[in-house]
Automatic annotation (TrEMBL), chains A, B:
UniProt EC number: 3.1.2.-
Thioesterase domain span: 57-140
Transcription regulation keyword on record: no
Native species: Planococcus chinensis
GO molecular function: hydrolase activity
Annotated InterPro entries: HotDog_dom_sf, Thioestr_dom
Record's protein name: PaaI family thioesterase
Key words of the record: Hydrolase
Organism taxonomic ancestry: Bacteria, Bacillati, Bacillota, Bacilli, Bacillales
SUPFAM superfamilies, alphabetized: Thioesterase/thiol ester dehydrase-isomerase
Domain of life: Bacteria
Keyword Protein biosynthesis found: no
Amino acid sequence: MTENVKQAIQDEYPEDFAWCYGCGRMNKEGHHFRTGWDGEETVTYYQPESEHTAIPGFVYGGLIASLIDCHGTGSASLALHRKNGFEPGSGEEPPRFVTASLHVDFKKPTPQDTVLKAVGRVEEIHPKKFKVAVEVFAGDAVCATGEVVAVVMPASFAK
Amino acid sequence: MTENVKQAIQDEYPEDFAWCYGCGRMNKEGHHFRTGWDGEETVTYYQPESEHTAIPGFVYGGLIASLIDCHGTGSASLALHRKNGFEPGSGEEPPRFVTASLHVDFKKPTPQDTVLKAVGRVEEIHPKKFKVAVEVFAGDAVCATGEVVAVVMPASFAK
């Protein structure tokens, strides 16, 4: 499987905010998670590296938590960007979010050799605060579910 | 600050279960989190690497989630080991846990240049299920709090 996101919100973050270890395109060591729309849902694909093990053959939970975290902030950014009238690729700078809280329920061991697919449903709970419900699939199996509360990045971060 | 854990539970996991990207001593690419007792609390120290950024100068949330996750399973292992009459260093093989759920509340931006200290308080909620409340400090500031529910690793993992 070589699923791919064509228009990812992270491709359009300003360079100063593109250094996230999870989803920053400028961070050479990072995971480069890329999040886009799939209809009304959001999606991120990721093939874990061989070192991302919990026990041999299964994916490290912290990597799954990282995927859910960045998928959540990316999904919130997509949703507010759409609310503002824009889609990735439009050339408008998207809003940037930070994570207020992250919850993960690990449902079953996640196989190492499979592309993971995070699927999100975004709900606005305040004009600057979005909740994203996430399911992480390995093939047809939901291996983890999660919830991210993301808030618009405070101006104080942008010094 | 060069705080260190002298007797870590992860030092005594059997080799087959020491490959965790977060806390496995055999995983050359991993974080090598090490968790030990500090009185009745548990503690893990970690200096984030330069690439573990959220935005430049601040630590990536997924790294903090990973620290809380492994600190939680390590703390649960310490607690059940102690209940069974053993301390790290005794030579007895400790019980191994997996994460059922992970919750993180990000309280404030976490500075990149400071050793992080995760502190845990462990509560048994079932003979095979432990809840660990975690605070992550950078210096004197609590940057994140979390909760891990950890369960004894099912025998089916040990094939």
